[in-house]
## 1
Amino acid sequence: MFLTLLEKVPATFRGRVAAVSGAILLSLVAILFATCGEVAQHAFRTVAQTHPLSPIIISPAIFMVVVYATRRWVPAARGSGIPQVIAAGHNPELAAKGPLVSLRSAAAKFAGTLMMLLGGASIGREGPTVQISAALMVAVHRWLRVPVSAGVVIAGGAAGVAAAFNTPVAGVAFAIEELSSAFEQKVAVFVMAAVMISGLVSLGLSGDYVYFGVMSEKMPVRDMLLIAPLAGVIGGVAGGLFSRGLIAMSSSVSPLLAHARAHPVLFAGACGLIVAISGVVTAGLTWGTGYETTRDLLAGHHAPLIFGPAKFIAALATALSGAPGGIFAPSLSVGAGLGSLLSQLAPFAPPGAVVLLGMAGYFTGVVRAPLTASIIMMEMTAERSMILPLFATALIADWISSLVCQPKLYHALSKQFLPA
């Protein structure tokens, strides 16, 4: 009866209702996801503080359990989630009926990411939020009998970025640079509408917050001309190496990597052990997203110089394990650590501003999306005066990273989710 009445409603009206409803639903889920993620990280840190060596057992065990369960029952939920959305965009009608953006995969991604945070994994929730949001947008369109197009998948993923970071402009930029290879005007309007609605819902429920807090440090042009190229080169090299490692793990014919792929659960346990040891050595700084340490560095505070390199190792080990979890937040933390190291070489420059350039350089080096990187850094710190050095750093990092690792990370990883 309901379906009969639904089919009598004009398709255009159903499409608008689906877009609005999907954007509202995914923003609510993104807020819930963020809250649960904070609880999971706090629970792990509490246990680690009470029993300092317990992560040596807990982390490898959780890594192995999550990787086994994911590969056994929901393989489309492994990894970041962004490659799945890119792959789904190539054939949205088929993807709408398959596992890449299904509610089953979204639920597994939600639960798997939280479990990994309970194990101290160096992951973020932004990549998973993209896949979860795309799945919710697709599900709402299917419920309302609206055809699922590439725009539906792209809009859901872009709105997920906006809801996760409270950065609506960056959500649109990310859709242009990463999720969509053919960004038509109709898709652009859909994306902007979904991002705006999810942003308004997030703003209404979570308040008008800036992700890393408001920065007030400025960088003179003289300092910018010196530091931006350095941050771009360092971030491009380090980010390119990170991407090259992940791509090699997914497709290299190297006997060592092939052996690791043949024993994914044992390999995940080894990755978990590396993450646990790095956290013990750094007094817990490398566990979780790294948000608190990054925020402190942006505020001009100090962290151990080992933070950047150690976070790089922890984030790479976590990503190589193949467990659900994003690389956005860890990339920002690694970049902050590298920026902190760079600030030691440039004591004349504001440390927080140097850290911000380090974040832009490394983040761009990993994801190869300079426009998104520049805008997301600006929106997360409300620092408009840094836009020129941010763009300069991002463009240099993108070029250097392309020399280290030619294919773009998410697009290379998406091939494993495409039909043979």
## 2
Amino acid sequence: MSTDPQHILIIGGSGGIGTAMIRELLARFPQAQIAATHHRGQPQVEHDRLIWQALDLRDSAAVDSWASGFKRVDWIVNAAGYLHGGHGGPEKNIRALDPEFLLESIRINTLPTLLLAKSFSVALKQSPAPLLATVSARVGSIEDNRLGGWYSYRVSKAALNMALKTLSIEWKHSHPRGCVAALHPGTNDTALSKPFQTNVAADDLFDPTYTASMFADLLSRLGPADSGRFWAWNGETLPW
């Protein structure tokens, strides 16, 4: 079981879940210092224990430069994600596949976690209980795929899950006190899911504040024995 984190990074902090995570962790851990990133979104939270950083998570050199300013990091929570935008949206069938949309999905949903792990490996190693957790999605589960469609989002999240699983194996040796986790948030009432909420039952559409609280409960319980698993917000383990 992890000790309370003192140095936390929230990636994608201007998004719905990211903003909720910042508020939850500021309240839950009154000694913690939080650094959060934003890219296109505008930060919604200000606090004397919170520092914002504009960062393009696709830029390896920029992530490296930011990481160079940290001697120790306890938790990294990556809440950045891409489902629709200027390059397109979820595909209903293979005929709708657009290469640029697929590549952009991978650049935002998959690549940043690998860059963060690479750049912050040393800083995380200084923590007594390092944690790297990324918000994934149940639709990234290969075993759980029953509906098809959404090629780019599914592919990018499945690749993310593989990256996290692979990292957890390496870090059992290099970061033996650490934990690597993939997180499924359910469907949250955020800009990311807004165009796709029509068929979501009211009870299945979560306020990000609720999800952030559940994630904080979950992450506080995780330790080395839990590393390399895919977790739902309610603590259920999901199939890869």
